[in-house]
Write a structure and sequence with these properties.
With about 350 residues, the chain is mainly alpha-helical. It folds into 2 domains: about 160 residues, Farnesyl Diphosphate Synthase (Orthogonal Bundle), CATH 1.10.600; about 140 residues, Orthogonal Bundle (Farnesyl Diphosphate Synthase). Strands 1-2 form a two-stranded antiparallel ribbon. A hairpin with a 2-residue loop joins β1 and β2. The longest helix has 30 residues.
């Protein structure tokens, strides 16, 4: 199975590069403009810089639930989900003021370096680069070789996914500025809207549509699965941000603490401490100058108070529920593909970065 997934990744990376090469030669912009092709180049650079390509894998494996024969429009669906991901990364880095992404400068910081004396220009071009990636993610579906009805249905899926993601970004910001601690329902809703619906549900729907299936027939089951896996994955991300090994994750721990994010880990930590320990956590929360030593102290408090164990327990519970949800597909789906979706939640629990 791992070899098959690695094959999806290798094939898609070549496809993505070829897509941008073709787009660059046909890109419709005035000849005098240098900004327009530069914007496209930054979208290309970030898109090709890597990532797990798990959404691409989901598209292909969803189609395999129906058939193992070649499927028209499947590559276009894969391109669309990764272009939508690029859009999200560009805007995420702008919102979070993040200098790095995938081992290189974020699009926002690339523009800041390009226009050090024009911050509004840098900001505006970053927004437009994200918008361009979003438009391309829809255009690639409208230009697909899939039948017209399938193209329209896939475009509708991606439009809804993008809308849900915007709502997720809004409630994510709302969560972090609301004085009251977020409830579990709030944390799950942020995870669902901001991540699960475009990273899991939409690729599932696109793969099924390309394979000739009508995903609306099984919409509740797909939504339940995507939501559970999305929560599991977000729990793991938040866990690694505080309790992960920097040498393995490749990024510093405590980012959510410094940014003042009420993540799963931070919320669990705040609910578990009192007195001097709580005062230390609250003093670090939202302090961009918070030192590595303070983050380490917060981490030790979390370990001592069982926060890490609680997060792992929650991950496993959601992974088990998601795996059981996928197992229920076996009577009407191809067993080999169902196995992938049964195992996927557990990979989220086990990953170290």
């Amino acid at each position: 199975m791992r070899e098959r997934l690695a094959g999806h990744e290798r094939r898609f990376n070549a496809l993505f590069e070829a897509y941008f090469d073709t787009l660059r030669s046909t890109f419709d912009a005035p000849e005098f403009s240098t900004f327009a092709p530069e914007c496209l180049d930054l979208v290309r650079e970030l898109s090709l810089r890597g990532g797990k390509r798990i959404r691409v894998v989901l598209v292909h494996e969803a189609a395999r639930l129906v058939t193992d024969e070649p499927v028209a429009g499947l590559d276009d669906a894969a391109l669309s989900v990764e272009l939508l991901q690029t859009h999200g990364l560009i805007h995420d880095d702008l919102i979070d003021d993040s200098p790095r992404r995938r081992g290189g400068p974020s699009t926002y910081y690339a523009y800041r370096d390009r226009f050090p004396e024009r911050p509004r220009t840098a900001l505006g071009l970053t927004v437009l680069a994200g918008d361009l990636a979003l438009a391309l993610s829809l255009r690639v579906l409208l230009d697909s070789e899939a039948p017209l009805g399938v193209r329209q249905a896939m475009a509708e899926v991606q439009t809804r996914a993008a809308t849900d993601t915007f709502v997720g970004q809004i409630i994510d910001l709302e969560r972090d500025v609301t004085p009251e601690a977020p409830t579990e329902d709030v944390l799950h809703a942020v995870s669902d809207y901001k991540s699960a619906r475009y990273s899991l549900l939409a690729p599932l729907q696109l793969g099924l549509l390309a394979a000739g299936e009508q995903p609306d027939r099984h919409a509740p089951a797909l939504r339940r699965y995507a939501r559970l896996v999305g929560i599991c994955g977000q729990l793991r991300d938040d866990y690694l941000d505080l309790f992960g090994d920097e040498a393995v994750t490749g990024k510093p721990t405590g980012t959510d603490i410094r940014d003042g994010k009420r993540s799963y880990a931070v919320s669990a930590l705040l609910s578990a401490v009192t007195g001097a320990e709580r005062a230390l956590v609250e003093s670090a929360l939202g302090d961009p100058a918070c030192t590595a030593e303070t983050v380490a102290a917060v981490r030790e408090i979390g370990l001592a108070r069982g926060v890490a164990d609680r997060l792992v327990s929650d991950m496993r519970r959601h992974a088990e529920q998601a795996s059981e949800e996928a197992a229920a597909w076996r009577p009407r789906r191809r067993a080999e593909a169902v196995e992938f979706f049964e195992r996927l939640p557990w990979w989220s629990v086990e990953r170290a970065h």
